[in-house]
Structure formats: structure tokens, C-alpha cells
Amino acid sequence: MSGKPTKVLRKALGANVRTERHRRALTQESLAEQLGITPRYLAAIERGERNLTLDSIEALAAQLDVDPHSLLACP
Q1: Which among 35, 4, 3 is positioned nearest to 17, based on CA atoms?
Q2: What domains can be seen in the chain, in order of their start residue?
Q3: What pTM does this model have?
Q4: pLDDT per residue over 18-50, tens digit each?
Q5: Contacts with 42 (C-beta within 8 Å, 6 or more apart), sequence order
Q6: Which of 21, 23, 32, 59 is the most exposed place for a label (fewest CB within 10 A)?
Q7: How confident is the model at residue 2 (pLDDT cuts 50, 70, 90)?
Q8: Which of 67, 68, 63 is nearest to 24 (CA)?
Q9: What CA–CA distances, in Å, run from 34 to 12, 38, 55?
Q10: How far apart are CA 54 and CA 40, in angstroms?
Q11: CB count, 10 Å around CB of 25?
């Protein structure tokens, strides 16, 4: 199995997180602090470089007040 489907999902997740963060006028630093992660780690999520667990996606969605499924939606 190639990593392409996973890469597509990571990129979609990152783009959706960035969109929601911008929609709420949050900096990476402020959202990272709310999540208890480093801004560098959040930046890697937004670039699609991190493979998050479902629990992490759920926590991120809760912090952004969105449905977790919306963060995984591909364009």
C-alpha cells in the first residue's frame, strides 16, 4: 500500500486546520498554547507533515468548535 492516500488526508487536514484557525483570527502560537502543543508542531500539522491520531483530531476539532469530519474533508 502506498502512502499517497494518507498524504492526501494529512494535507487536507492541515489546510482545513489553517482555514479554521484563520477564520477565528488565531495565531499558530495562540492555538498551539490552547492545545498544549508547540507552535512548531502545529505548523507541521498545517503543512501535512504530522500523522495525527483520531483522538488528536477530535481534540483539535473541539478546540476549533468544528465537527471532526470537517477537518478531514478533501477538496
Answers
A1: 35
A2: 4-72 (1.10.260.40)
A3: 0.90
A4: 999 999 999 999 999 999 999 999 999 999 999
A5: 17, 28, 31, 32, 35
A6: 23
A7: low
A8: 63
A9: 22, 10, 16
A10: 20
A11: 7
Cell numbers found for residue 40: 512548531
- Residue 40 near residue 46 (C-beta atoms within 8 A): no
Task: Give the Cα separation of 74 and 28 in Å (integer).
Answer: 22
Say which amino acid occupies 20. Answer: E
| Grid-cell match 495525527, residue found | 52
**For 27, phi and psi rounded to 5 degrees?**
-85, 165
CB atoms within 10 A of CB 34: 12
**Residue 2 burial (C-beta neighbours within 10 Å; 0-12, 13-18, 19+):** exposed
